[in-house]
Design a protein that fits this description.
Helix content is 10%, strand content 50%. By secondary structure, it is mainly beta. It has a 14-stranded antiparallel β-barrel with strand order 1-2-3-4-5-6-7-8-9-12-13-14-15-16. The radius of gyration is 21 Å and the shape is globular.
């Protein structure tokens, strides 16, 4: 049965994906990591169907009544002095209406010195972006399948330029509670700009993802397998710094084969004691590891690790993620049970 379900999911997401090679998109902050737990498991996790009220920011089909009256606040000291955070809250109306979810993602790019075309100072300016979301999930009949959606309103201000946008996330989740196995397909950021920065309409950071996870029966361990950015193939680009040359001076660009392209979509994560008051988390992001590693130097890019500690109605989370030799990020979060 498990094999059949996996095949159905794989066929479904293949029919939805399309190439999106090159190009640029606006509102890129929508795809930033939403919580310390997600960061610790490699930066992309779609299949946590439990108390984690920040999970629906990435997969609305995971909304469930365990999130009732849970409030989460997360903050990240990101690269280059950028700070961003998320907040999420869920409320269960009743057994029939089920649970509604609300979330906020905010990023502050800091302060910049401005200059005109002649090099004269124009003072300082700031940049920030915010997304507000409302989500809901429903069970499809009496099956193990769930469908969820987020509706998002986006605002961005960069110096004197502003832009507004609207987007939706769609997700289909298979949740077998008997064997504690989940599989899902997520389509994120379907939408468009409502107003542009300077008259040029830009696409949103559309993304398709697939994920599976399961808690082992006799071992307190939960594994996560994620395929990200399935809408883009190939996703790997040859690195000019890895161009080789022979004795005659002929240069050969880096060759990224089929397996290399597949592995760049892959993220692995592990949680030890996932249902206890204290748990450990470890993740590995293959794409980050390959693209940010320094040649002939071991810098552990792509590795992330964290932990969570539950004290009464508070759950604290921390993660350290390795991006490059000079670029690491720390993620902090607290979830409060308001019941």
């Amino acid at each position: 049965m498990l094999r059949k379900i996996t095949v159905v999911f794989c066929f479904f997401f293949i029919t939805l994906t399309y190439a999106q090679v090159g190009g640029e998109s606006t509102f890129q902050f929508l795809n930033l990591v939403s919580s310390p737990r997600q960061a610790a498991l490699g930066g992309r996790v779609y299949t946590n169907v439990d108390y984690d009220v920040t999970q629906p920011l990435y997969n609305p089909a995971t909304i469930n009544d365990e999130m009732d009256n849970q409030l989460a606040l997360n903050y990240t000291s990101y690269l280059g002095g950028i700070g961003y955070g998320t907040a999420a809250y869920a409320y269960t109306v009743d057994r029939r209406t089920k649970t509604f979810h609300a979330g906020v993602t905010y990023i502050n790019y800091g302060s910049f010195d401005g200059f005109d075309e002649s090099g004269n100072s124009t003072g300082t300016f700031n940049g920030s972006e915010t997304a507000l979301s409302l989500g809901y999930a429903l069970q499809i009949g009496y099956s193990n399948f769930y469908f969820g959606t987020n509706i998002k309103f986006i605002t961005s201000k960069l110096e004197q330029y502003t832009s507004l946008g609207a987007a939706a996330d769609l997700a289909l989740l298979y949740n077998d509670k008997d064997i504690d196995f989940q599989a899902t397909i997520v389509i994120r950021n379907l939408g468009a700009q409502l107003t542009t920065f300077a008259g040029t309409n830009e696409p949103l950071p559309f993304e398709v993802g697939f994920g599976m996870s399961q808690t082992l029966e006799h071992v307190p361990l939960r594994w996560h397998f994620t395929l990200e950015n399935l809408q883009e193939w190939p996703i790997g680009r040859p690195n000019p710094a890895r161009t080789s040359s022979d004795l005659e001076g002929n240069e050969t660009a880096e060759d990224i084969g089929f397996f290399g392209q597949v592995i760049r979509h892959t993220i692995l994560g592990l949680e030890l004691f996932p249902e206890k008051g204290f748990n450990l988390r470890l993740g590995y992001n293959f794409r980050r590891s390959d693209e940010l590693r320094v040649l002939e130097q071991r810098n552990f890019s792509g590795i992330s690790a964290g932990f969570a500690l539950k004290l009464n109605k508070l759950r604290f989370s921390y993660t350290h993620a390795k991006y490059a030799s000079a670029a690491n990020s720390n993620f902090f979060g607290v979830q409060i049970d308001l019941q």
